[in-house]
What we know:
Layout: E1 2-7, H1 26-49, E2 53-58, E3 76-78, E4 98-102, E5 123-128, E6 131-132, H2 135-145, E7 150-156, H3 157-166, E8 171-180, E9 183-186, H4 189-203, E10 218-224, H5 227-233, E11 240-243, E12 246-251, H6 254-270
Parallel strand pairs: 1-2, 1-4, 2-3, 4-7, 7-8
Antiparallel strand pairs: 5-6, 5-10, 8-9, 10-12, 11-12
Helix pairs in contact: 1-4, 2-3, 5-6
Amino acid sequence: MKILVSADMEGATGVTWPADVLPGTPQWERCRALFTSDVNAAALGFYDGGADEVLVNEAHWSMRNLLLERMDERVQMLTGKHKSLSMVEGIQHGDVDGVAFVGYHTGAGTEGVLAHTYLANSVTGVWLNGVRASEGLLNAHVAAEYGVPVVLVTGDDLTCEDATGYAPLARKVAVKDHVSRYAAVCRTPTRTATDIRAAAAEAIALAVRHTPVTGGSFTVELEFDAEHLAAAATVVPGVAPSGERRVAYTSGTMYEGIRTFKAVTTIVSAAVEEQYG
Length: 277
């Protein structure tokens, strides 16, 4: 039994504003420990439930945030950038039975603590086949293509609500309650570690591989806060204007879809000017 933990930081215990998640700031140094506590609690819970392996894939910013030395000795951690499937790297090898989204958040243009989709700003909305999409929804579709169920989701209360749409059976743990994009009512790390560990131990029962979902067509539409960013995105083959400040593309698989999405956001982030966006 092998579990993949996709670990993002905006939805971690105690995290509420940009400095908490921006590498190099004093607040980020402090919040790294809180983030690590959440991820380690999930791993411990999966081991409690009978998992043989837990692979943690760092999925935030530099993808070098977790404190390996504070993780359970049985855990393996995939650290660093430039991975084929980015946030769910490792799911494509056919040996993962379930995936957990730990420290996740809501999508761009919606309410939620530090809500965004891939880019902190610039992207104001993402839709997958007409449905507004968070990173969780996008990654869940990638996982489904490999027959892997989402078994656990942690983040703020609105992230847990969002997850009911793409992983209705998954165990959910709210580590904080949304007040605004930069404010939340937070539980203590002692409490959230207990809650996450218990939920992960239960979630292991859901880690049953299913028939891979194939044969779909995935249309992704992105909206930006400036027209020149939409124009920059069309450099990617297959990406075309779809409206004011919008582009869209269609992929035959979510493997292709998420890789194109990563290419678009990478190019767009390079087109953002410091003061004017």
